[in-house]
Amino acid sequence: TFVLFLTLSLFFSLTALIEPGTIAGMVSIDVLLTLIIVAVTYRCASFRHKKVENANKVYMNVRANCKKK
């Protein structure tokens, strides 16, 4: 991710000023944040997919009233 790129560029430019534990913490938080974003996106996408599948099960005249957002 972009944050990881910034973290690594900061690491290489300021190696003497930042302790290794701080860099490890920043990388760990970046990985955790990325996983949270992926999980939330997957959950929202699967919920929306189920909603469309359920709408396809009803009669065609009722299906026309269900709008995709």
TrEMBL record:
GO terms for cellular component: membrane. Pfam families: DAP10 (PF07213). Residues 1-17 form the signal peptide. It is found in: Membrane. One of its GO terms (molecular function) is phosphatidylinositol 3-kinase binding. Keywords: Disulfide bond, Glycoprotein, Membrane, Phosphoprotein, Signal, Transmembrane, Transmembrane helix. The chain crosses the membrane at residues 26-45. It is a single-pass type I membrane protein. Belongs to the DAP10 family. PANTHER family: HEMATOPOIETIC CELL SIGNAL TRANSDUCER. This is Hematopoietic cell signal transducer. It comes from Oryzias latipes.
